[in-house]
Amino acid sequence: MKVEPDQKVRINVKVNGVLHEAEVEPRKLLVDFLRDDLGLTGTKVGCDTTTCGACTILLDGRSVKSCTLLAVQAHGREITTIEGLSSDSKLSPVQEAFKDNFALQCGFCTAGMIVQATFLLSQKKDMTEEEIRDSIHGNICRCTGYQNIVNAIMDASRRMKA
Amino acid sequence: MVRIPFKRLFLIIKMYPPQVGYFRPESLGEALEFLEREEAKVLAGGQSLIPMLKLRVLRPKYLVDIGGLKELSYIKEGDTISIGATTRHFELASRRIRGLEILQEAASKVGDVQVRNVGTIGGSVCNADPAADYPAVLTALDATMKVRSKKGTREVKAHDFFKGPFSVDLNPGEVLEEIRIPRLEGYRQTYRKVVRRAGDFALAGLALAIKLDSGVVKDVRIAFTGVSQGPHRAKEAEKVLRDSKLTKDVIKRASEASTSGANPPSDSRGSSWYRLEVMKRLLQTSLEVMANES
């Protein structure tokens, strides 16, 4: 696959179970493809510098920062965004836990936090508070509401085991 | 990840990579062929490259995306551990290799979970941020870089490979294919770093491997990150320790000697003087732990 700088590239990406075919510039960032082209604005742009984690999505099941990937890098791969975690307006266990634990203040980091927590719990069901805090260090809550976020993730882990 | 000077942060409203072409090869051979002809930059995970494109520090004509090449993603164990360049941080962080425990420890401290899910060891090594984690480990362990181009293969020692900040011994058309690290069995190994805030690059980081025989240091390797233009091998400290017992006095002298030749930068996160103090304390406390455990 070769694309000239002034050309567009055709990509196939499965997003939340739906296959999308699109033409994008090679320099198009994945987060902008999701938000502007597909209208999935649940994923947020915070710092735009790989620091804050508001743009976290799942790429082939692993959490990544979509402001630091090109859309073309996702060609042929599967993406899950915050919109894809719930089905038929039924919240996922992590979303339920965030709601019940008041794990948000302004809400801007929440989508990224929930996606990251979903990934962490897919890797390891039993995490200590310390492990949770360490593994969400790529997600910044500028309201500093970490206590309830950590509580929510521990609660989600209990719910998923039950 | 790339550090952005504090002042520039306010000048940037929306950052976007410049117009760039894209090539996705089916094999390493195809990538080398392309790199020989075109003015291009290799894209592996992109966790340093994409931020740099956004800052317009780099403006290549093409990106050659080797991130999906399976032939470059592997960990092979023998007397030497061979690691393919596009092996991702999380794969190294989840694998304990006997005689190379330090690599798992270092890999699990790179960036954050999301960065480790995409970023590759080869990408981080070729980016050669002076505060990156792997360069110190590879320098301490005398690793060898296997570099490929269309013309052939050559091998470069870590010590020669890291030439300065963001500068490595790679010529146009060349790609880092593999990293070879000798297995250090019977060595106690540790990688520790000090950061001011979660996610920051290291103020200073220490890669330490030490072999003790009834309390006497038979061999020791010490390298720091973040305190010089490139990884800093603390040869003077190694000299102090070799063939000595890890007494309080020896540890103190080694820690003092470790800063010889280091030239840490001063910036918003710490002054040069402070970084030197951090270095000494890192080495001192690490050696004390090892002395107590032996």
UniProtKB/TrEMBL annotation, chain A:
All copies of the 2Fe-2S ferredoxin-type domain together span 9-85
Q: Give the domain of life.
A: Archaea
Cell membrane in keyword set: no
Looking at the keywords, is ATP-binding present? no
Q: Write one Gene Ontology MF term.
A: 2 iron, 2 sulfur cluster binding
Quote the protein name from its UniProt record.
Aerobic-type carbon monoxide dehydrogenase, small subunit CoxS/CutS-like protein
Concerning SUPFAM superfamilies, the annotation shows: 2Fe-2S ferredoxin-like, CO dehydrogenase ISP C-domain like
Q: Which UniProt keywords apply?
A: 2Fe-2S, Iron, Iron-sulfur, Metal-binding, Oxidoreductase
From TrEMBL, chain B:
**What InterPro entries does this protein's entry cite?**
CO_DH_flav_C, CO_DH_flav_C_dom_sf, Diverse_Substr_Oxidored, FAD-bd_PCMH, FAD-bd_PCMH-like_sf, FAD-bd_PCMH_sub1, FAD-bd_PCMH_sub2, Glyceraldehyde_DH_medium
Q: Which NCBIfam families match?
A: glyceraldDH_beta (NF041019)
- PANTHER family assigned to the protein according to its UniProt record, in alphabetical order: XANTHINE DEHYDROGENASE SUBUNIT C-RELATED
Q: Which residues form a coiled coil?
A: none
Protein's UniProt name = Aerobic-type carbon monoxide dehydrogenase, middle subunit CoxM/CutM-like protein
Q: Any signal peptide, and if so, which residues?
A: none
Q: Which PROSITE patterns match?
A: FAD_PCMH (PS51387)
SUPFAM superfamilies per UniProt: CO dehydrogenase flavoprotein C-terminal domain-like, FAD-binding/transporter-associated domain-like
Q: Listed GO molecular functions?
A: FAD binding; oxidoreductase activity
Keyword set includes Oxidoreductase: yes
Keywords of this entry: FAD, Flavoprotein, Oxidoreductase
Q: Which organism is it from?
A: Metallosphaera yellowstonensis MK1
FAD-binding PCMH-type domain mapped to chain residues? 15-186
Name the SMART domains on file: CO_deh_flav_C
